[in-house]
């Protein structure tokens, strides 16, 4: 007979103390309950129960067996859940919008991992910083970096985004490096269209400075500002995730290192929690976990 079923019968009988009650609960005959217990006792070579006309109690061997039977059934349940989840593979197509810089530096690798884990899901990624109408354009998810999310959308924070002020060595040969945020007013700066392009906020401990800067070049994509800064066009305020290689190879240098630009957050934005596709929920959870590390 099935030893797992025998273990299940034994655990139930230990709780009920009655062959009749266990038979009713497990929808089998009292004789079948007796056969399962005998199977377990024959397998283990030990008597598990003390039986009287009024009660059923466990022997010492029965108490020891009960612990292991519970563990065995718990392991079976965990295995069944795991296999069931694997069988329920995610399917469907998701449309996502993200800035080019964030998609290139952080998002693409996480999306690649997600579709490897879920081969039934297709992802269409639009790289753009323009305002997206999720409903009209049938976009499932927008990844945006902001100080606060769009109040008309549901926003899940994914990762904090720190920035630095940088300029090329060529630019700094022509213009002395700023020593204080107020010195930025005398410099050529590179503005990002969506984030207060002409007003930069910096802090140092309890000190806060908001500086109106002169932006001869403004762009809506951070990677453009990165290349412009490397070409000597001016001082740029850029996210850390774009700067590692440029700072390492010396094409850009950090300015005012004691002063911190306003910290932003990358948000996953979607229109509604109602009737959310399972694949979308799974993707949001995947990105949240991927970026939390």
UniProtKB/TrEMBL annotation:
Does the record carry DNA-binding as a key word? yes
Under SUPFAM superfamilies, the record lists:
Periplasmic binding protein-like II, Winged helix' DNA-binding domain
The yes or no answer to whether the keyword Transcription is present is yes
Q: Which GO terms describe its biological process?
A: DNA-templated transcription
**Keywords on record:** DNA-binding, Transcription, Transcription regulation
> What PROSITE patterns has UniProt attached to this entry?
HTH_LYSR (PS50931)
Gene Ontology molecular function, alphabetical:
DNA-binding transcription factor activity; sequence-specific DNA binding
Q: Where's the HTH lysR-type domain?
A: 1-59
PANTHER family named in the record? HTH-TYPE TRANSCRIPTIONAL REGULATOR, TRANSCRIPTIONAL REGULATORY PROTEIN
Q: What is this protein called?
A: D-malate degradation protein R
Its source organism is Shewanella algae
Q: Which gene is the coding source of this polypeptide chain?
A: dmlR_16
